[in-house]
Amino acid sequence: MTITKTQGTLIGCIAIVLWSCDTIINIFLSRLPIFQILTIAWSISFIIYALVLSYRRQWVSVKQKPIIWLIGSLGICGAHTMLVAGLRVAPPEQIATMSAIWPIMVVLLAKELFYGQRIRWLSVFGVILGFIGVCMVITEGQFFSGFKFAYLPGYLFALLSSILWSIYTLMTRRFYNITSLMMGIYLGVGAVIALGYHLMTEQFMVPTAMEGLLLALKGGVTLAFSYFCWDFAIKRGHFTLLNSLAYFNPILSICLLILFGISVAAFPLFVGTFLVVIGSMLCGLPKSTR
Questions:
Q1: How many domains does the chain have?
Q2: What is the pTM of this model?
Q3: pLDDT reported for residue 97
Q4: Is the pLDDT of residue 50 over 80?
Q5: Where do the DSSP E strands lie in 55-190?
Q6: Contact 137, 283 (CB under 8 A)
Q7: What is the structure's pLDDT at 284?
Q8: What does the alpha-carbon distance between residue 247 and residue 249 come to, in Å, rounded to a whole number?
Q9: How far apart are CA 144 and CA 72, in angstroms?
Q10: Whole domain around residue 10: which residue ranges?
C-alpha cells in the first residue's frame, strides 16, 4: 500500500495529540521516581516493538551503524528524560510551551545544514511569533521582569530536551531508509540505562493500580505508538508542515492541564498560545502562498 504525503502527515498529527496526553500522564505519575517511570515505560515500549519485529521477522533491520544507535537513543530517551525532569521542577504549562522551541530549531537548522531548504520571510516571521508566544507564557506576560530564576533548572531541562529532539528529527529525516521499528531498539537501550540509574539513585515505589494503568498507557500508547507515528511521518509526510503543526503540542497540553485543573487559565496564557498558533500557521503555509 502506497502512503501519500498527506496521509503521512496525518499520521504525524496522531503523535502530536498523544504527546499532549503524555504530559498529563507524567504529572499524575509524579509520586514515582523519574527513572523508575522511564524504566517501566520504555521496557513496555521495547517489548511491543520486539514482538512486532519477531512477527515480521525483521530483526536483521536493527543492524545499523553505531552512530545511528547513538543518535536514536540519545535523541529519543535523552529528550524524554529531560522533559519529564523539567515537569518536576517548573510549572507544567511553562515546560509544555518550552517544548515548542524544538520545531523552531528544526526550521532554522534545516535551511542549510541538512536539506538546503530555503526559509521564506513568512516562515521567519512565524518563528518569531511562536518564540514570543512561548516567552509570554513562561513569564506570565511580563517578559524579562517576570522570569523566575527558581524555575531555571526546569527551563534548562526543557531546552536540552528540545535540542536533542530537534537534532534527532533532522538526522532521522536524513537517514530515510532506516525502519521505524528501530524506535523500539532506542527505547530498549534507554530502559537499560534508566534501570541502572534507578538502582543507583532511587528507591523503588510500588505503583498503585491507577499508576500501573498509566504506566502501561504511557509505554504502549503515548510513547511506543506515538514515536512510531512521528518517525514514520517525518520520513513520508510533509516535513516542514509537520514541524509547524508540532507547535500545537504545547497548546493541546495546556488545554488538558486547564481541563484537569492543574493549570489556571490566564490572559497571557491565551495570548501566548494564540501567537504560537499563528506562528505555526505561517511556517506551514504552502510555498505557493508565500
A1: 1
A2: 0.85
A3: 81
A4: yes
A5: none
A6: no
A7: 57
A8: 5
A9: 36
A10: 5-289
Contact 86, 161 (CB under 8 A): yes
CA distance 202 to 152: 23
Phi, psi of 119, deg, nearest 5: -90, 120
CB 134 within 8 A of CB 77: no
Q: What is the mean pLDDT of the chain?
A: 85
Cell numbers for 267: 490572559
C-alpha cell at 145: 521582569
- Residue 5 carries which side chain, given as an amino acid letter? K
User: For residue 246, what are the CA distances in angstroms to 22, 153, 181?
Assistant: 14, 24, 22
Closest CA to 106 of 20, 176, 169, 175: 169
Phi then psi for residue 70, to 5 deg, are -65, -50
- CA dihedral for 6, 72, 64, 51, sign (positive or negative): negative
pLDDT recorded at residue 289:
45
> What is the SS3 assignment for 233?
helix
Instruction: Check residue 287 and report its DSSP letter.
Output: G
**Residue listed under C-alpha cell 510551551:** 97
Average pLDDT over residues 267-290: 71
**CA atoms 230, 185, 224, 97: torsion sign:** negative
Distance CA 191, CA 180 (A): 18
Q: Which residue has the cell 524579562?
A: 144
Give residue-wise pLDDT tens across range 69-78.
888 899 899 9
Return the number of other C-beta atoms located less than 10 Å from residue 66's C-beta. Answer: 7
What cell numbers appear for 245 in the block?
503543526
194-229: per-residue pLDDT in tens?
999 999 999 999 999 999 999 999 999 999 999 889
Cβ–Cβ < 8 Å for 253, 23: yes
Torsion, Cα 192 193 198 201, to 10 degrees, reads 150
